[in-house]
């Protein structure tokens, strides 16, 4: 079994942050 490298973990965290940010974007637009 291949261990998850720190680079992949950082990339995954970054992807998660971006996806959450994009998901919250339309809600902010609706408030304006």
Structure description:
It is a single chain. The chain is 81% helix and 0% strand. It has one helix and no strands. By secondary structure, it is mainly α.
Low-confidence stretches: none
Q: What integer is the average pLDDT? A: 80
Order of helices and strands: H
Which percent bin holds the helix content? over 70%
State the end-to-end CA separation.
Answer: 49 Å
The dominant shape is: rod-shaped
Radius of gyration: 14 Å
Class based on secondary structure composition and strand pairing: mainly alpha
User: Percent of residues in beta strands?
Assistant: under 5%
Largest beta-sheet characterization? none
Count of distinct strands: 0
Q: Counting H and I runs of at least 4 residues, what is the number of helices?
A: 1
What's the short version?
It is built from one helix and no strands. The chain has one helix at residues 6-31.
Element layout with pairings:
Blueprint: H1 6-31
Based on the model shown, name its key terms.
mainly alpha, 1 helix, 32 residues
């Amino acid at each position: 079994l291949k261990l998850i490298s720190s680079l992949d973990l950082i990339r995954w965290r970054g992807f998660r942050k971006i996806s959450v940010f994009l998901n919250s974007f339309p809600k902010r637009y609706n408030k304006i």
